[in-house]
Structures are given as C-alpha cells and as structure tokens.
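Section 5: illustrative case.
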C-alpha cells in the first residue's frame, strides 16, 4: 500500500508526546501516557482527536469533569479501567464511554494490565471550559490560547 497524502495519514506518522500542562506535584502521575494529536495534525480547530497510549500502571489523566466540553472515548487496544463517580469498570477493545458537558461525572482511565493500552479521545474546544478535579487540589480553566491554565481549588497559582 502506498503512503497516504494529506488529508489522509497514518496515525503512526504523528509524533507521540507525553508533555503535560499539569503543574507539580501532579505532573509525574500524568507523564506515562503518550498522545498522538491526530486532529491537530490535519488542522482541526473545533474539536480535538487524540490517540492516547497508556503504559502499564499509568493513567490517562487525573480524575476530572468538564463544565462545557463533551468528551467521547473508545478503547482501541488493550484493557483499561474506567473510574467514574459511580465506581470502576474494565473496558476492552471497541468499548466506549461518553461524558456530556456539565454532567459533573469525574473520570479517568487506568491501565492495570501488563501491556500498553490505546484509547481514542474526542473532545470539543468550547471557550470558557473549566475542569474540576475532585480527588486533588486542582482546577483548570481554558486560556485565550486554547490551553488549560491550572490553579489550586481556591484560585491561587501552583
């Protein structure tokens, strides 16, 4: 098969990054998941599409909920534990989860297996979105550049 040309592409050709905007002391816990920013690769601006590889023992993010952003996730490969306000459940390839904006259901994925797992994540980029983190002293708000700015729950900087 010939290599596709844009707008078509092979996700493996998009660089992986484990960069995170999380401040210390939360950065390390979120440095073992690797993103391929597929939507950015083709210039999408209204929503993000990310392929996230989560290594054994790692999490997708700190458990969080969005005020204005819808999120949809699909397990592509491996096995992940979805942790929400309702508890924990194990998801395998092809299984999905969705979180409507403002629903308040804090969530994250944890890889408790001994193999990498891959998750497809789709979320919109609604201005004014805020993230709440019930388990840690963290709050997020979207800045004018579209990136999240993190503070403590009382609004003071980290």
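Designed sequence:
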């Amino acid at each position: 098969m010939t290599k596709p040309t844009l707008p078509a592409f092979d996700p493996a050709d998009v660089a992986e990054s484990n960069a995170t905007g999380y401040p210390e002391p939360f950065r390390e816990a979120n440095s073992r998941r690797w993103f391929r920013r597929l939507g950015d690769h083709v210039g999408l601006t209204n929503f993000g599409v990310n392929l996230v590889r989560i290594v054994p023992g790692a999490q997708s993010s700190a458990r969080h909920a969005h005020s204005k952003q819808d999120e949809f996730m699909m397990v592509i490969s491996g096995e992940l534990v979805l942790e929400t306000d309702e508890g924990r459940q194990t998801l395998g390839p092809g299984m999905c989860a969705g979180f409507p904006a403002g629903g308040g259901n804090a969530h994250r994925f944890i890889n408790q297996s001994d193999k990498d797992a891959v998750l497809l994540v789709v979320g919109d980029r609604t201005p004014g979105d805020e993230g709440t983190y019930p388990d840690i002293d963290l709050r997020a708000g979207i800045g004018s550049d579209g990136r999240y700015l993190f503070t403590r729950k009382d609004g003071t900087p980290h």
